[in-house]
């Protein structure tokens, strides 16, 4: 009888080990998917920063009365770039993503203000270089919104996986924590 219990315990241990390896690999794949999704979002954010720089350069002399808005965008770009850099290192970490969410919202508001200024100044809205830059920025915003949605879906899939029992028990030993969406 002792012999059957030993085999049963070995079989149970083997099942637990293989299940643990499978669960770990699944979570790692989902975490890597977050990184891939952030790479797409990072590309859109980088292009958004470039358009912001272009608009700042072209509008500094043309809108001297709006220097506060231009300075606000410049400061928001610095903050958003720094936050983006922090997330590049660990896109699954909650704190840098939370900082990026705030910085991206402030940056988006500053860009929206600038685009609104361009559109409400008739002499600026008919200039081809400014109209083209605004149109490009609007296209980038649509792509950024889509990339953000893909990132958030990857985060939700990862979080759902580490919340499931019994994976939740294993993840507490391995040190994985929930990711944050944007």
What is shown here, in short?
The protein is an all-alpha fold and 182 residues long. The protein has six helices and no strands.
Q: Can you describe this structure?
A:
The chain is mainly α. It has a single domain (2-174), classed as LemA-like domain (de novo design (two linked rop proteins)), CATH 1.20.1440. 86% of the residues lie in helices and 0% in strands. It contains six helices and no strands. The longest helix is centred in the N-terminal third of the chain and has 58 residues, at 2-59. It is rod-shaped, with a radius of gyration of 24 Å. The model has no long low-confidence stretch (mean pLDDT 90).
Give the SSE map.
Blueprint: H1 2-59, H2 67-89, H3 94-120, H4 122-125, H5 128-163, H6 167-174
Helix pairs in contact: 1-2, 1-5, 2-3
Name some characteristics of this structure.
single chain, 182 residues, mainly alpha, de novo design (two linked rop proteins), rod-shaped
């Amino acid at each position: 009888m002792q012999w059957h219990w030993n085999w049963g315990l070995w079989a149970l241990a083997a099942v637990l080990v293989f299940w643990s390896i499978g669960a770990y690999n699944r979570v790692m794949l989902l975490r890597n998917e977050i990184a891939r999704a952030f790479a797409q979002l990072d590309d859109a954010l980088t292009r958004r920063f470039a358009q912001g720089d272009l608009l700042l350069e072209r509008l500094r002399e043309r809108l001297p009365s709006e220097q506060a808005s231009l300075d606000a965008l410049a400061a928001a770009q610095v903050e958003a770039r720094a936050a983006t850099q922090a997330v590049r290192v660990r896109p699954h970490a909650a704190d840098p993503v939370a900082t990026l969410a705030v910085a991206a919202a402030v940056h988006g508001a500053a860009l929206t203000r600038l685009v609104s200024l361009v559109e409400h100044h008739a002499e600026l809205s008919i200039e081809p270089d400014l109209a083209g830059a605004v149109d490009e920025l609007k296209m980038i915003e649509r792509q950024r919104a889509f990339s953000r949605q893909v990132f958030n879906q990857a985060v939700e899939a990862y979080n759902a996986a580490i919340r499931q029992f019994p994976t939740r028990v294993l993840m507490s030993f391995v040190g994985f924590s929930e990711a944050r969406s944007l």
